[in-house]
Amino acid sequence: MVEHVCEKCEKVFKQKSQLDAHKNRKKPCKKDDTIEKIVERKVEEILSRVDTKQKPSPTFIEVCAGCGGLSTGFMEAGFEPILLNEINPKFCETLSRNHPGVRIENKDMLALNLTEFNGRVDVLMGGVPCQAFSQAGERMGLEDPRGKLIVEFNRLVLECNPKVILVENVKGLTTHNGGETLKGVIELFKNGGKYNLQTKVLNAKDYDVPQKRERIFIVGVRSDIGRAFEYPVPSKTNVLLRDVLVDVPPSIGAKYPESKKAVFDLVPPGGCWVDLPDDVKRSYMGERCLSSGGGKRGIARRMSMDEHCLTLTTSPCQKQTDRCHPLETRPFTVREYARIQTFPDTYVFLGGMSDQYKQIGNAVPVKLANAVAHQVKSVLSSA
Ligand SMILES: C[S@@+](CC[C@H](N)C(=O)[O-])C[C@H]1O[C@@H](n2cnc3c(N)ncnc32)[C@H](O)[C@@H]1O
Questions:
Q1: Ligand 1 pocket, 39 CB below 6 A?
Q2: Is 64 helix (H, G, I), strand (E, B) or coil?
Q3: Strand 164-170 vs strand 123-126: parallel, antiparallel, or unpaired?
Q4: Which residues lie below 8 Å from residue 302, measured CB to CB, with a gap of 6+?
Q5: Domain residue spans of the chain
Q6: Distance between terminal CA atoms of the chain?
Q7: Predicted confidence band at 147 (pLDDT cuts at 50, 70, 90)?
Q8: 338-373 pLDDT, tens per residue?
Q9: Residue to probe by mutation, ligand 1, list 63, 67, 79, 86, most atoms within 8 Å of CB
């Protein structure tokens, strides 16, 4: 269900009209800073444990945290968050709701200053935006202002001096500009030998996630730690859509227009546009698209229960990346999206429907994040 939150006092309303009435009342609401004070005390308590070396759990900061897929995987592995930063206020609401007591900064990471955490945080990580590197995007790399955020991330590394740095990005980074962009990023993060860098593309399906989703994980371990990071070994189990599309809690979800539904009704589980009758194929795909070559197997794609879902995107019904539900003719609902990204059913996503799909579609699957987190933890346990 969509919830509407007052940015001032953080009161939650079920209907937008209630929020509007609340905002328009004669006596304006006041910011309740009780929560902020509790959060501040909690952060101080963690830092004082760090400073006095009574530190039972490893700590992390995440910038560009989205709705918290990566962070949740780390928390589930026993890490304590010191700070989560995210520029989108709706996504911050999601973070606050699911991680009460955690310090959340709703600002551009360019405006962050992490010097107060110098030497006091184990891991600095970030789902630093990938649009500039995305294979689907314009591939302008470091020329794109969003690509430059990588450089800003490195400034934050130097400010807080973490033992481990971790950046997750799209697989397209490996081939961007003939591999030169990734080489540049690695050189940057090495900081003249201060960090030892490793990179690997991991596929979420190998870590109990019912989805093919390839992402590069760039990991740097501070040289004085004297231990190499090892990427998680693939799990022995194989989780498929049929394992997660059971008893999914009801939720909002996008719908196909009638004309599109009529087309998808003709596609069997596991099939796509090639399974359509010729006349429907021609009218749905268009002559130009049909003669343009390439498999285009993502178009008019209906998933099968016996496979891994294709990579979820931030919008569930785009012509090039449709993934129709295996048994019903509709896109996956928000809660099905969350299941496929391995979020717990208790994880709440705030904002309107498209905000919710966007947050989930952008996230690192929690189980993949968790597998990586355990490996980071083992590097730190010897530090
Ligand atoms: C790929 S998503 C991160 C997903 C996240 N790691 C997760 O697992 O849920 C990237 C996020 O970076 C945020 N972002 C983009 N530019 C930013 C900036 N300049 N400062 C802070 N956050 C930013 C976006 O709003 C988006 O939520």
A1: no
A2: coil
A3: parallel
A4: 264, 267, 268, 269, 270, 271, 272, 323, 324, 325, 326
A5: 33-235+364-381, 241-350
A6: 44
A7: low
A8: 999 999 999 999 999 999 999 999 999 999 999 999
A9: 86
Tokens of 163: 């033992």
Token look-up 């049909």 returns 290
33-235+364-381 shares its CATH topology with 241-350: no
For residue 219 the two structure tokens come to: 């990991």
Q: Percent of the chain, pLDDT > 90?
A: 68
Mind telling me the catalytic residues?
A: 130
CA 118 to centroid of ligand 1, rounded, Å: 23
The pLDDT score that the predictor gives to residue 135 is 52
Beta partners for residue 63, in sequence order: 126
Tokens 């935006």 belong to residue: 129
Find the 68 Cα to ligand 1 centroid distance in Å. 9
Beta bridge partners of 126: 63, 167
Cα(152) to ligand 1 centroid in Å equals 13
The three-point CA angle 351-82-56 to 5° equals 130
Query: Which residues 6+ apart lie within 8 Å of 92 measured at CB?
Result: 86, 104, 106
Tokens at 121, concatenated: 């945080």
Atom of ligand 1 nearest to the CA of 73: 8
Average pLDDT of 109-126? 95
**Closest C-alpha among 203, 217, 176, 175 to residue 310:** 203
Q: What is the DSSP letter of 233?
A: P
Least confident of 3-7, 37-41, 143-147: 143-147
Ligand 1 atom nearest the C-alpha of 66 is: 27
* H helical segments located in 103-176: 149-160
Fold of 33-235+364-381: Rossmann fold (3.40.50)
Contact at 8 Å (CB) between 42 and 101? yes
- pLDDT score of 321 more than 90: no
Q: What is the CATH number of domain 241-350?
A: 3.90.120
pTM (two decimals): 0.89
Q: Is the CB of 152 under 6 A from ligand 1?
A: no
Quick check: 3 and 350 in contact, CB under 8 A? yes
